[in-house]
Write the structure tokens for this entry.
Amino acid sequence: MAEIKVKSRYRIKAILLVVVLSFTSISSASDEDEDLLKQAKKIFSPLPQVISSKKNPITPEKILLGKLLFYETRISIDGTVSCARCHPIGLYAADGLKKSIGNNCKLNPRNAPTLLNAAGQISAHWIGNRTDVEDQARQSVVGPPSFGMPSNEAVERRLKEINGYIEPFKRAFPEEADPITVENLAKAIGAFERTLVTPSRFDSFLKGDAAALTGQEKKGLNTYIGTGCIMCHSGPYAGGQTYQKFGIFEPYWNYTKSDPVDEGRFTVTKNEADKYAFKVPIHRNVAKTSPYFHDGSVDKLKDAVWIMGKIQLGKDLNKAQVEEIVTFLRSLTGEIPEDVLKVPILPSTD
Amino acid sequence: MAEIKVKSRYRIKAILLVVVLSFTSISSASDEDEDLLKQAKKIFSPLPQVISSKKNPITPEKILLGKLLFYETRISIDGTVSCARCHPIGLYAADGLKKSIGNNCKLNPRNAPTLLNAAGQISAHWIGNRTDVEDQARQSVVGPPSFGMPSNEAVERRLKEINGYIEPFKRAFPEEADPITVENLAKAIGAFERTLVTPSRFDSFLKGDAAALTGQEKKGLNTYIGTGCIMCHSGPYAGGQTYQKFGIFEPYWNYTKSDPVDEGRFTVTKNEADKYAFKVPIHRNVAKTSPYFHDGSVDKLKDAVWIMGKIQLGKDLNKAQVEEIVTFLRSLTGEIPEDVLKVPILPSTD
């Protein structure tokens, strides 16, 4: 266990609970439910309504502008890339590809994580090179594999050519004389992404409705807790709060057949302890965001769960355990807000 | 005029009206409006609610399935192409590119026409090689520059891998034992596209509300009629009913600077008379679907209008005339139905 870095308050609680759980005696069905609920409440918490930020206070005007920009392809070098390309809302804001394909067919180095419930994580993306969703948007527009624009100025020039953006930028940033900037684009997209929150039946359960999960799902939650998944997958998002070495008991590529091998967070920090470390992905909507892992190397959730048991927990989970965990994970599939499902009509040059 | 083929009843009416118009005396403002309305009613007609088809009767179940498939990238060879990629609804179902970019960065030979109000035209696309919207969908999935799939069977295999499609296909085609076919995919997408109808203030005008257009727009409509635009741009869609030689008075490429020169419908029929002929594009939403012409060679609507006057009508339209026509064309920008603006949640393999 020593090599796992503890970075979050959820971690400590979770470890204590695994210990406590082993000594809990099982009595009546209803008591069981109550116990499970009590434990779950200590490990997880319900999703917030929106994921707020002190640095980027959310306003309706920013959300509106951010939603326009989320679908905007005209600010990419070849006119085909928008945020929605790699994060289509209808596919739970992931794209189903192993690695996303950006402008001029450039392959992104890693799998596109879902943007649903993404804003509350320790950082955006896999290796900690994007501090938050705003930073992710900011870096994407000039990043070679995504939008591929040569500079912030080039993005701003494109935006200024589309007359219809003048008003939405002014309304979102009323105190600025010249609000059409990449900085503000990032804030607006960030504000929109902070509304991409998808409560599920699991949230109703956490709020006290023990009947919100089926018996099978509760059994699965028990297994999820008991086998130790919660050591990393805890908190409101069931993950997203720490970086962990992928492959504690064995190298990950032995199981994922990853090629090339990705050194993960080490490529950012050059710290030996970060070799093969990745941000723990969240489990919200995980059943809908195949393929899995940083390189999308595994297609099936059940295979991903078994591999995680093997190389993170040193456990050879049996078929029943894997199925139980998968059943619980499906209960984390949430509702995408109606507003979010509506495509905006984009500003025109007209 | 001899080289223009008359293919539609709207054409004949339109030519007669241009003649009649020249002799119409102008009296009071209200009489003027009444006259204009009377003429307009003979040239144009309001949009239908949906664009029906005897070959492909529309059902709610087909529309629902068609909408899913419209957003489906997983049936393209590289997983990045869906109908919505080249026809994003938020950009009025066109993509703003000169020529669309399909799978593996392949360039499509022509500009992506809007899919709004597309189903009622003489054919789909520019040169008459796609008989209708269903045929367009059918040919796109295996066409090299768009989805790029090697065969219908390959598309069907991909669809069958996504469990969530079984039920929607069954519901849309309840009498078929094995409904997951490209033929049915085309019918479903066609049914959805037949609902992409965008009424505008011009329809209210045509239905008798003379005040639905502003004075400037009515002036523009007068110019649109009087200069002869209506010889080709008539009917419910203001175009889309005939093929016409592009460049009657002068070669089009002298003005559009097109390179390469596209021989248009000739490439389909090998009939000399079809050289440089293209389907007359519709003017519904034309102000929102820049760039213009079959190769997107012209960015600004006012430039496109001036070029059309020059090479189709042999008229050097002055600045005021061009502006008047553009003002009228803007009144053809319609409302995209609420239902259409909602992104569907796609079926999963889960």
User: Anything to note?
Assistant: The two ends of chain A are 61 Å apart (CA to CA). DSSP finds 15 helices and two strands in chain A. The longest strand of chain A covers residues 243-245. Chain A has a mean pLDDT of 93.
